[in-house]
What does this fold into?
Amino acid sequence: MKFHNLCIDTKGSFEVYQKITNFLDVNPKKEEDFQIWTYQVVTYEEEEYFDYINAFLDLLEPNFEKLKDLNIYQEDITIWLFYEYEKQCSMSFNPQETKRLGESGISLNIDCIKRN
It folds into this structure.
């Protein structure tokens, strides 16, 4: 199972959290506090590949100016993959998506977790 997360630091502001939800037009994970706005897509091994880097950048890039208006900058945004595996954790990235990610200034984090 893979958990694809788009995380945005809201600096704990409920108002900022709501504004991000409204202009990105996706529903975030429910959080107890509003420090981090997180949109999550869960996929399973047997499903078709979810191109999460490009999907998340498609959400973000047209909204960078709106995010800046909320004092949120690229360094406040992380794309984070949590990957549960049984035998081997392996993944690859194509040059176009890594180039696009690098040019956007968004961080990519990957955690591989062995499934029990």
User: Anything to note?
Assistant: The mean pLDDT is 91. The radius of gyration is 15 Å. Residues 14-24 form the longest helix (11 residues).
